[in-house]
Amino acid sequence: MDKTLSSPAEAVSAIPDGAKVMIGGFGGSGAPIELIHALIDRFRETGSPKALTVINNNAGNGHIGIAAMIKAGMVKKMICSFPRSSNAEAFNEKFLAGEIELELVPQGTLAERIRARGAGIPAFYTPTSFGTELAEGKPTEEFDGKMYVREQWLKADFALIKGQQGDTVGNLTYRLAGRNFNPLMAMAADKTIAQVSELGAPGTIDPEQVITPGIFVDGVVEVANPQQEEVLVRTGVVH
């Protein structure tokens, strides 16, 4: 099945109001900037999608990417580990004004909650957060004399991810640290859309190099020269 999409705009066209959206990346590394900006452009043109729940490592920087989504008023809730990064002005303003919700999740727990969904594990135990506000209201249990907190899997309607190489049936590779949350999110969402720097026919990727098999990817779009978040922030770009 050919999963090729013609443009980032087409790739994000089916995301509705109120969707829960995982967005790959660790800071700017592995962040699908073109897909995010296509989603923002659609919102500005049509007023949709809005009231989104966004799952990411952080709440964006500067005036591009996730930060631009928040600034535009598209995001109802952030689920992340680092809401206050080096330049999180957009999130700070909305949060202090009571216009956005925050679910703070320790980074290792965030990764495992995402991974658990892809593995079909509805809940697991971790010692992280025990005895803190983050554990309030959650079941706890003792194992071998140590207390653990039960955490539930984290799933999404859509995942927007970034790969390095892809083929038309959705197999993906990643570049260095750009791998980060992307493979986990690809497995945890009902629909996964990937942007890749290089797109080829089936067989152009050595099977041993495939990180995300195409079974987890619903659409793939080629973005030959992707933008880098840190460069955009450093040069003061506003999307």
How many structural units, i.e. domains? 1
Q: What's the CATH class, please? A: Alpha Beta
Radius of gyration: 18 Å
Taking pLDDT < 50 over at least 5 consecutive residues as the criterion, the unreliable ranges are none
What would you note in describing this structure?
The protein has 239 residues and is an alpha/beta fold. The chain has a single domain (8-123, 153-234), classed as Glutaconate Coenzyme A-transferase. 25% of the residues lie in helices and 26% in strands. The chain is built from seven helices and ten strands. The strands form two sheets. A seven-stranded parallel beta sheet has the order 4-3-2-1-8-9-10, with helices on both faces. A three-stranded antiparallel beta sheet has the order 5-7-6. α4 links the parallel β3 (75-80) and β4. The longest helix is centred in the N-terminal third of the chain and has 14 residues, at 33-46. It is globular. The model has no long low-confidence stretch (mean pLDDT 96).
